[in-house]
UniProtKB/TrEMBL annotation:
Organism classification: Bacteria, Pseudomonadati, Bacteroidota, Cytophagia, Cytophagales
Gene3D superfamilies: 3.40.50.2300
Organism: Rufibacter quisquiliarum
PANTHER family per UniProt: TWO-COMPONENT RESPONSE REGULATOR (PTHR43228), TWO-COMPONENT RESPONSE REGULATOR ARR22 (PTHR43228:SF1)
GO biological processes: phosphorelay signal transduction system
Domain Response regulatory: 6-134
Matching Pfam families: Response_reg
Alphabetical keyword list: Phosphoprotein
Protein name, as recorded: CheY-like chemotaxis protein
SMART domains linked: REC
Modified residues (4-aspartylphosphate): 65
Length: 146
């Protein structure tokens, strides 16, 4: 697969966003990396890019934190699942969080998420995710940056 058009990071932690963006950039796997600092901002971006415009701008991959102000990850998922998105424009959602609370893990299983991972995002894990969900072979990029 070619590079992803867009990846969306949804996290209020600027350091975590910096690390995740850096990992994505080093693997050279996305044309664009967007950042939303809470679920409400993310829903607004998705509405703009996936509903009101052609789905070409829709994020293909979302990394979503659990604990955020304004709207947390679970509130985002509840509203996101009610959005009228075309099947081919529904992004893969990965929960990326510092939470190890078993209640959060159990609650996450009620939603259509692909994975529940602990921060920080690492190159090797991103390469595995890209291969698993997008058939993107990041091994050459991975070897080049290690």
């Amino acid at each position: 697969m070619e590079r992803l058009n867009c990846v969306l990071l949804v996290d209020d932690d600027n350091s975590a966003n910096f690390i995740s963006k850096n990992v994505i950039d080093k693997l050279d796997c996305a044309d664009q990396v967007l950042v939303a600092h809470n679920g409400r901002e993310a829903l607004h971006m998705i509405t703009e890019r996936c509903v009101t415009q052609p789905a070409d701008d829709c994020p293909q991959l979302i990394f979503l934190d659990v604990k955020m102000p304004v709207m947390d990850g679970f509130e985002f998922l509840r509203e996101f699942e009610g959005m009228n998105l075309q099947a081919n424009s529904r992004p893969i959602i990965i929960m990326l969080t510092t939470s190890t609370n078993p209640v959060d893990v159990q609650l996450a299983q009620q939603f259509k998420i692909a994975e529940f991972l602990n921060k920080p995002l690492k190159r090797e894990k991103l390469a595995q995710l890209l291969d698993k969900y997008f058939k993107f072979d990041a091994s050459s990029s991975l070897q080049a940056v290690t």
